[in-house]
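Supplementary Text 2. Reproducibility record for the structural model of the 343-residue chain.

All settings were left at their defaults, and a single model was retained for analysis rather than an ensemble. We include the record here because the model underlies the residue-level annotations in Supplementary Table 4.
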Amino acid sequence: MSLFKWVKEKLFCDLAIDLGTANTLVFLRGKGIIVQEPSVVVINKQTGKVEAVGKEAKEMLGKTPKSVVSIKPMRDGVIADFEIAEKMLDYFIKKSTNNRNFILRPRIVIGIPSGITQVERRAVKDVAMRAKASEVYLVEQPMSASIGADLPISEPTGNMIVDIGGGTTDIAIISLTGIVFNHSIRIAGNEMDDSIIQHVKKKYNLLIGEKTAEHIKILIGSAYPLDEPMTMEIKGRDLREGIPKTVVVDDQEIREALEDVVGSIINAIRIALEKIPPELSADIIDRGIILTGGGALVKNIDKRIREETQLPVFITEDPLTTVVLGAGKMLDDLELLRKISLI
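Retained model, structure tokens:
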């Protein structure tokens, strides 16, 4: 390793973070995505000690003893538990840098939902500063996702992106390196999981947990009829008998369970399409709608949106990483970063 490279690596540790409701991703400049783990922390209530974070903590969901509690510090795209969020972020930063000590504190870019308040923005910034950042830049997730998807955001043309995350769905029209219109709703992947839990409870008197609901959504959840029917065996607790029980569900009933959530997302897209300037509407007809975020992985959601809007719909190459990749690219373009970051 050259002396210059060694000094550079020792001096600088710039990070990009997608601090999501469901997952947190960390991008280390020069290395790529280092961390991609669930936004979950397990705390010992008696000692206050962090027992586990991320993947390990998610494995413990619903299985912890009374002395230990699983906490999701992010809710609807914002910090719900400031102290736990700080511990989680500190853990992920240390993990992404292998606990190395750097001469200069890191510069951090964080992707946030476009609909959060000034107070909520301040909370995110404070958490990052307390995690020993030198500078913190907040960038709206639709803008970051657009950069991650290599859209021509600096050109005088309309680019429409829909980011369906865990806690929020962000819809934005971007042109000339700015957001012409944005609309954010706190309905996304988590609400899909909740809808599945309620459906199974109502139809089968079966109580299932969040992990099982998410697994159902991933395996057989869909927004539009599938080419081949799918079924899945699920296990839970019978609410009448109080004993473990197994039932079989199919893709059609799960699709019906998700209908209200999918309908709300499509309605939000319609609102955005109705409010954009007519000159940009022509660009959207040509370029279509870009889908990203974990919700974009729900089977046939692109087909459903295409049918409802009569517009081309495309899913980014890796919807789960688009936001953090965009934030990572901004670390190499400070002029652009300062231009689009929020105060």
